[in-house]
Structure formats: C-alpha cells, structure tokens
Amino acid sequence: MDAIVNYDWPGNVREMQNRIRRGVVMAEKDYIDVHDIELDAVKPGGVTLKQARDEAEISTINEALARNDNNITRAAYDLDISRPTLHDLIRKHAITVQR
Fold first, then answer.
1. pLDDT per residue as tens digits for the range 53-71
2. Is the pLDDT of residue 44 over 60?
3. Taking a C-beta distance cutoff of 8 angstroms, is the pair 10, 54 a contact?
4. Cα 77 to chain centroid, rounded
5. How far apart are CA 53 and CA 17, in angstroms?
6. Is the same domain home to 15 and 63?
7. What span, in angstroms and rounded, lies between the C-alpha atoms of 75 and 96?
8. Hey, which of 39, 76, 77, 95 would disulfide with 34, CB 3.0 to 4.6 Å?
9. How much is the pLDDT for 42?
10. Is-above-0.85 flag for pTM?
11. What DSSP letter does each residue of 6-19 carry, written as one string?
C-alpha cells in the first residue's frame, strides 16, 4: 500500500487502473504485491526510465498542442508523428485537449 500511495502516477488514474488490473491477472498469490504492479523498481526520490519517458512525452505533446492552438493534426505534423499515434499518446497519458 505504501508503494501505491507514494508513487507519483504520471499517467494519472488510467495508469493506476491498468497496473491494478494487470496485478490482478498476474498475481501468483492471494494478494497483489509491488512486483505484480511493477512498483518494486521505483526508488524513493528517483525516477525510472519509464517515468522519465512518460514525463517527456507529456511535456512535448502539451507544448506541441499549445504551439498549434490545440489542433491535433498540426500538432502531429509538428511532432513528426501520425494523427492516430498522437491520439493514442493523448489517451495513454490522459491529456486533456481544449477544443
């Protein structure tokens, strides 16, 4: 429980839901532990590679959206990715796009 409470959850509620669901499926015991939800690698005060990558993606996407007045097509072009890929990343990181 300490690992869940102390984790930053950069992916917000969706990341938590996905990890808990995965933990329920992957648990080998009668309960879920930090290994099942992959929080055992998280060090207090440290950042994992996944966290750093997620934070960089979120920041870069938000900046591209801001530069392009929240136009997803132009932001995707600016980021040199396809529109569907940008939509997937927006969903993955639960980014709110003002329309």
1. 898 999 999 999 999 999 9
2. no
3. yes
4. 22
5. 19
6. no
7. 14
8. 39
9. 55
10. no
11. HS--TTHHHHHHHH
Specify whether 34 is located in the same domain as 63: no
Intra-chain end-to-end CA distance of the chain, in Å: 38
Same domain, 99 and 60: yes
Output the domain CATH number for residue 55: 1.10.10.60
| Residue 42 near residue 48 (C-beta atoms within 8 A) | yes
CA 30 from chain centre, in angstroms, equals 27
- How far is the C-alpha of 18 from the C-alpha of 38, rounded, in Å? 11
**For 60, phi and psi rounded to 5 degrees?**
-65, -40
- Structural domain of 16: 1-43
Side-chain half-sphere exposure of 24, counting CA atoms within 13 A:
5
Segment (H or E) for 48: none
Residue corresponding to tokens 């960089």: 56
